Amino acid sequence: MSVPVFRSLRKTLIGATLAATALLAPFASQAAESLKIGTVVWAGYGPFYVADKKGLFKPHGLDVELQFFNDPALIPTAMASRALDGGMLTYDQVVASVAKGLKHRVVMPIDFSNGGDAIVADASINSVTDFKGKKVGYNPLSPSDFLLAYALQQNGMSEKDIVPVNMTPEGIPGAMASGSLPVGVTYEPNVSQILGMGDGSKFKVVFSSKDAPGLITDVLVFDEAVIAKKPAAIKAMIQGYLDGLAYMEQNPDESAEIIGQVLGVSADEAKEQMAGAHNLTLDEMPTSFASSEETNSFHGSGTIIARLLKDNGQIPQIPDFTQTYDAQFVEALAQ
Questions:
Q1: What whole-number distance in Å separates Cα of residue 3 and Cα of residue 71?
Q2: Helix (H) or strand (E) holding 256
Q3: Are 118 and 187 in contact (CB under 8 A)?
Q4: Radius of gyration of the chain (CA)
Q5: Per-residue pLDDT reduced to its tens digit, 212-228
Q6: pTM for the whole thing?
Q7: How far apart are CA 181 and CA 120, in angstroms?
Q8: pLDDT tens for residues 232-252?
């Protein structure tokens, strides 16, 4: 996010879904629908990891295959080629895709980054304005780029005021530790790794996604054609997420173990990373689709995102934000 967020894969999908219990017998005689979903390793996707591990899609007549990517920028292309049915993306990716003519639609918001994405700097740097003339490492055309652009804009600056360094989020901790990079934009667990270097006083967070709640939002996305072809499967996918979220609330320790295995960290570390993202409940989801200037609305965050992307030459025009989502599934479940 939250997205958004070149969050890279360190582990492949763990485990297989559990065998159906007697309670699932009514589905045994039915051919389950299936979805292949592109994703990356990110704590905010925890409810899906839990739902997969605990077999929570099965009661809704759905088989889900989570296909992990190192680079989330490849997911929209895989969707367009039909190698994937859908994907977990950051909303800025959807804005960019729709602006370029793709018919990708958000069917539900998953989570928004709540401090999980951050700009970390040397302790001598106290504010965003202190970035002027300094090297700033980040991954172009990613939510890290977007967070930086927004932070600069909020402080009357632009990319022209800094020295951009093209770098993966995973490469930033090492570069900052070596002293060659004073400022880096990355996400958890890289943020915690940087802050913990030395005696813990060498680096600080100067700006994070907490400063703009909802600005980096992770979303579940399908192409219009897939939505028309597989509406029942998409509804079941959302229901599985909600069941996964409920399971996490009822079984926090076990869920942290499951999520930690996907993230490649301990359960305690998983809990720390999960604190940097806020998973939306069904009651909260309609706000994302409402016409509002607030950053927790696709219209509000979309306006900010699209202006920055257009100003940076990343999209040709600002899209109609109503064409970036399809709220029918959330609306039906909310009723």
A1: 13
A2: helix 252-263
A3: yes
A4: 20
A5: 888 889 999 999 999 99
A6: 0.80
A7: 10
A8: 999 999 999 999 999 999 999
